Amino acid sequence: MATKKDIPGPKGLPILGVYPQFRRNPLSFLQETASQYGPMSRFNLAGFEFILISDAEDIARVYRQDNDTFGKSKAAKRLTPLLGNGLLLSEGEYWQRQRRLAAPHFHRRELSGIIPIIASMTRDYLNSQAVDGETDELMIPVRHTLADLTLHILSRFFLTGDEHEAPTNIHATVRAVVDQFGERSLKGIVSPLWVPTKKNRWIRKQITTLDQFTNQMIKSVQRKSNPDANLMTKFVHSQDESGQGMTLTQIRDEIMTFMLAGHETTSNAISWTLYLLNRHPDVYQKLCQELTEQLADRPIAFSDLPSLRYLSMVIEESLRLYPPAWANRRTVLKTVEIGGYQLEKGTMVMVSQWATHRSSKYWQDPDRFWPERMQAGLKKERPQFSYFPFGGGKRTCIGSNFAMLEAMTILATIFQSFDLIPNPGLKTSPMAGVTVYPKDEINLKLKRRK
Can you tell me which residues bind heme (predicted)? Predict the structure, then answer.
C-alpha cells in the first residue's frame, strides 16, 4: 500500500515549505491545492507536514472513525487557555460524558422558546439605532452590528437569563479575545501564554476578566433557590447516570466554549448572508415574498420554520460559500488507511470546508450564489460530506440547531421591519481567522417599512 510519502502536493521552500503562501491567503491556498492535486495532497507548513483530504467519502471516514483513530491537533490545543477542556477541545470518555450532559439542552424542540425572545431582542436593537427621521433610513455596519447583537443574545441565554445583561466590558473583552486567538491560530510558531510578552500579559488579563465574571455567575446560580432559566442554570443542575454533576471548572469551560465559539460563527454567517442578498436582488425579492406570504405582519414563531424553506436554503447556501469553520485539523492516533494511502500514527490531516464546498466535483458553478441547490432533491444527489459547515459524525457542532434558529429569526425579523436598499458596488473579501470574516466592514442601508 502507498504511504503518505507518495501523496502529491506543492513543495514550497526549505524548512518553511508553503507557509508563506498559506499565511498570505489560507483560503485560496487550500482551494487551489485541492483543485490541482486531487483528493489527497501533502505539504509542509513551517516544519509541520499536513495531509489535505478533499474527497467527500474520505472526509466521511475522518469524521466517522472512532475517537481513538483521530484526535485533536496541536493547533487546536492553542485555544486551551481560553476554552479549557470544553466540548470543542476535550476528547475520549470525558468528552462523551460532557456531550451527554449538554446535548438535551440543544435539541431543536428544547430551543423552540428562544425564537420570540430573539425576535424581540432584534427589533429592540434595530429600533435603538439612529434612523433618519425624514427618510426612515438606517445605515448599519453589518459585521459590527451582528457581532454585538448575537453576543447580547448569547449572554442572555447562556449567562444572565431574562432579567439581567452582561456588563458592556464583558462583551468588548469577548470580541477582543476572539480576535487575538484568531491571529494566533494562523501563526506557525507562537509563544506560550506563560511567556511574559506584552501581548501575552494582555491576553491573560482578559481571560482572567472573563473567568471572574463567569465564576461569579455560576456561584450566583448555585446560591439561588429559583435561578433564571438559562444554559448555565441547566448545566449547574445537570447530572449524569451516576448522579454526578459538573464541577465549577467544567461549567466554566463549556460556557466559555459556547460564548466565544458561538457568537463569532453566527454573526459572521448572518453578515455574509446579508452581503450576498445585497449582491443578488432577485434572491432577496424571492425571500421577501416568502416572508410576506408565510408571516405577513406577525412575528416569526417556531411553528413557522418548516414553511420558511427558502429562508433556510438562503442561509445554507451562504454557509456553503462562506463556512464559518474553514478547516479542521486532526492527528492520526493509530495507523489508518485513507484514500488508498497508509497514514501512520502522528500524521496530521486537514479537511477544509472552504475547499470542498467550492469543488466543481460536487457543485455546478461552485462560486455562484444559488440557494435552489439546497433543495432536498438535489441534496440527495450529493455525498453527505460535500457539505459540512457544522462538521460531522459524533462531533457535529452541538450548537448547529441554535445557530440556524438564531440566523433564521434575525433575518426574518430584519426584513419584516426594513427593506434592503441595494448597493451594487459593495464588495469585500473573505479573511481566515478563527472563522471566515469580511476583510472590510459591510455597510448596508435599510429603509423602515411603512
Answer: 397
Distances (CA, A) of 224 to 217, 229, 246: 11, 12, 17
Beta carbons of 76 and 101 less than 8 angstroms apart: no
CB 406 within 8 A of CB 118: yes
Query: What CA–CA distance (Å, rounded) separates 279 from 287?
Result: 14
Residue whose C-alpha cell is 426574518: 412
250, containing H or E segment? helix 248-279
Does the pTM exceed 0.90? yes
For residue 254, with 0-12 CB atoms within 10 Å meaning exposed, 13-18 middle and 19 or more buried, which class applies?
A: buried
Q: What are phi and psi of 447, to 5 degrees?
A: -125, 125
Class of the domain covering 85-325+389-448: mainly alpha
Residues annotated in the binding site for heme, as ranges? 397
Torsion of CA 260, 263, 265, 267, to 10 degrees: -150
Domain with CATH 3.30.43.20 in the chain: 1-83+327-365
To the nearest whole number, what is the mean pLDDT of the chain?
Answer: 88
> Are 64 and 393 within 8 A, CB to CB?
yes
Quick one: cell of 89?
477541545
Q: Render pLDDT for 279-293 as a digit per residue (tens, 0 to 9).
A: 999 999 999 999 999
Domain 1-83+327-365 has CATH 3.30.43.20: yes
The DSSP string of 131-180 is: --TTT-EEEEEHHHHHHHHHHHHHHIIIII-SS----HHHHHHHHHHHHH
Of the CA atoms within 13 Å of residue 419, those in its CB half-sphere come to 12
| Alpha helix segments (H runs only) across 65-167 | 80-83, 92-102, 114-127, 142-155
